[in-house]
Amino acid sequence: MKLDDTLLPILYMLAAMGFILAIKWMNSPATARRGVIVGEIGMALAVVGTLLRFEVVSYQWILVAFFLGTAVGIPIAYIMPMTAVPQRTAFSHACGALASALIGTAEYYKQFGQSTRFTTTEMTALIVETLLGFLTFTASMMAFGKLQEVSWIPQRPITYKGQNFVNLGIFAAAAGVGLALIVAPGQTSLFPIFIVLALVFGVLLIIPIGGADMPTVIALLNSYAGLSASAMGFVLNNKLLIVAGALDGSSGFILSIIMCRAMNRSFSNVLFGAFGQLQTSAAAGEAKPIHSASPDEAAQILEAARTVVVIPGYGMAVAQAQHKLREMFDILGKRGVNVEFAIHPVAGRMPGHMNVLLAEADVPYDKLREMDDINPEMAMADVALIIGANDVVNPDAETNPHSPIAGMPIIQAYKARTVMVIKRSMNPGFAGIDNPLYYRDNTLMLFGDAKSFLSSIVKELGALVRA
Amino acid sequence: MGAYEFDLWVFMLAAFLGFQLIRGVSPLLHTPLMSLTNAISAITVVGAILLTGEKEASTLSRILGFSAVFLAVLNVVSGYLITDRMLKMFKKREPAKQ
Fold it and tell me: What predicted TM-score, i.e. pTM, was given to this entire model?
């Protein structure tokens, strides 16, 4: 059976509707899983419809690739630990972008064996598709390497004099060669050069990016991968690809804007500003007095509190402390202590990172509060417990106009009656910015690994409960 | 109206629809949202199938198309499954204790 031109557009349209509903239903955890199902149905309709098109006659390679893709995809989805979600996301951006870049490349060479060549507009779309595809591929692989902490990819942002000049030069060269190909598509020797330039630009783009900027960059790469798919829709004259790609493109774009706003920085500042490098010198300073506390002191303060606000950061993910945190949440809950979690939009390495980890540890999601939502209540909190977060609670952002993070919205932990900070040592955080919160009179530093410190607190709390 | 102009209109409207829809998504679900849109953008599998399954596809087309089908299917399968796995973890109240 083959599909004709009346049935196929309807299948594609239903698929697009499925994708739109899938995203719409993501607005609430109550409907989100339904969204995944309609998204899957949409994809199934699109795939079956395409397989039944007249043009598709040879199936063996398609089926082998389907089998291999499924065989690799299922284990990735089920075995991967939740802490690796940012890496997996970067990796899948790389796969998606490479897929559209490879299709664009094949389409480019295919036209010379055919009677009709691409028009100028189709060729423009093809160049956009392959440019975004190849640069997103290497950029996402670099992001993956940094998140996975691959040894030969430096974690810290690397900057050198004239870096932006070099990067923009490479990009301009890629765009220039692309333009030449649009004007005269027959210059096949230029195409490999174009590919290499795009690949190199992707690598250079990520070299100056530090971990704190990863949420923005991952969202931006998400957007590029979607736009590349959309451009493919222009080449193939396929509305379904245009719509699905545009949805993905706008999603990534909005998320990166949200991330930028949450850091009070602009796009160009994230991409070309090399955040982590600027302030390393500012970290040096004289030793100021601090107060520290032991696990049993911390447990007593927590037990006596009525409201505790936990503020997690990337350090919680690194220490895998979310399950211990949930145990503490349970014990305190039984003692009538109200425990809430305050989530800063850029906490962690990707948008929503903390929420997923805490949900994995079975913290009910109505206890996960957004920054703007919880800040007015911070003054009522007896304890603010900060775990592996630094910049997102730094009061300098509000009070010190010379601070590198001046103007960044923060979770106002300093308003709580007592502030407790679980931290390995007094070393400044990733961005190397000193935090005056640590030196306040009502701040207690809890030195140690987040997971083992929390388990000591849990043990002490258990003893208090039994006593 | 030419095909190209029509496509541009479709793109513009879909992008605006996307902006509106995404703004309604709770920050709670930003991570699953990203893996969902990632699976959706693997709709490139359509282009990959057309390329690989053609009657007189060149060897280059077949190799590139085959790789693209593999990569896109990988994203579809792992993207949807992982989104669902994450969403399953979001629970409102504490699970009932035995």
Answer: 0.91
Which of B18, B45, B85 is facing A77, going by the closest CB pair? B85
Which ipTM was obtained for this model? 0.94
In the annotation, is A5 catalytic? no
Distance of alpha carbon A96 from alpha carbon A107, whole angstroms: 17
- Cα nearest neighbour of B19 on chain A: A250
Q: Which of A82, A92, A251 is nearest residue B75 as measured by Cβ atoms?
A: A92
Instruction: Count CA atoms closer than 13 A to A171's CA, side-chain side.
Output: 14
A36, B84: Cβ pair inside 8 Å? yes
Taking contacts as CB-CB distances below 8 angstroms, the residues of chain B near A242 are: 7, 10-11, 14
* Per-residue pLDDT tens over the stretch A89-113: 999 999 999 999 999 999 999 999 8
Sign of CA dihedral A17, A22, A27, A31: positive
DSSP code per residue over A446-461: EES-HHHHHHHHHHHH
**What strands, in cross-sheet order, belong to the sheet with A307-312?**
A368-370, A338-343, A307-312, A383-387, A418-423, A443-447
Look at A55 and B52 and tell me if their CB atoms are within 8 Å: no
Exposed e or buried b per residue across B28-44, where buried means at least 16 C-beta atoms within 10 angstroms of its C-beta: bbbbbbbbbbbbbbbbb
